Amino acid sequence: MAVDPTGRDLKQFLAADPEGPVVMLNLLRFADGGRESYARYAAALRETFLPRHGGEVLYAGDGGPALVAEEGQAWDAVLLVRYPSRLAFSRMVADPEYQEVTRWRTDALREAVLQPTTSWLPA
């Protein structure tokens, strides 16, 4: 299963609206023992990379049993992270220091969804 965006994914992501704000929905399914590795990644993200690139965690929490979903569609954790722009997110993932710690995320996950969202509400 894919857990990291590819170069092609990022190119399509940027083409949508490079300067507009974006909230990234993260749905995470951990590998065995992955929570500890993800916690290290999340600490680095909060302490270094989000402040550096203007991002902000809006919500982070454990997933529970799905109320409405097909079998196997429940997630272990959910995060909402706001970035000032898609370009800011792209710069973060291209940051060489970020690339050094992103392996903690990759190793931690069995499956992930990284869904960009834009608000329906006026700014």
From TrEMBL:
Transmembrane segments: none annotated. It comes from the Bacteria. Residues 35-110 form the DUF1330 domain. SUPFAM superfamilies: Dimeric alpha+beta barrel. InterPro entries: Dimeric_a/b-barrel (IPR011008), DUF1330 (IPR010753). Pfam families: DUF1330 (PF07045). This is DUF1330 domain-containing protein. It comes from Micromonospora endolithica.
